[in-house]
TrEMBL record:
Residues 1-24 are annotated as: Disordered. It comes from Cryptomonas curvata. Gene3D superfamilies: Winged helix-like DNA-binding domain superfamily/Winged helix DNA-binding domain (1.10.10.10). InterPro entries: Homeodomain-like_sf, WH-like_DNA-bd_sf. This is SWIRM domain-containing protein.
Amino acid sequence: GGKEGAGAGKKWTLEGSPGQEQLSQPEAALCNASKMTPADYLQAKAALFRASFLSTHLAPESACAIAAAAGLDLPKALKVYELLVANGWIRAAPPPPPL
């Protein structure tokens, strides 16, 4: 990304970011730790919710592709997916059957 140069000396913070008030405590912690704006998080969350309504389970690969299409890089997309699964907001795909 080309954003590193602009505020390289300034510490990133979630405080005062538009949409911050819409985040739960775990969501705010994720955004802060990942340096993700609330808008990016909420857009990815909405896309994953839509996808989960169309399917009973959502595999990590599918979720990452959906969140990436919503504008997140893959590591952030995976973190959003993991948070949503951990909170029971979407269902992870069951593991493949043993061979």
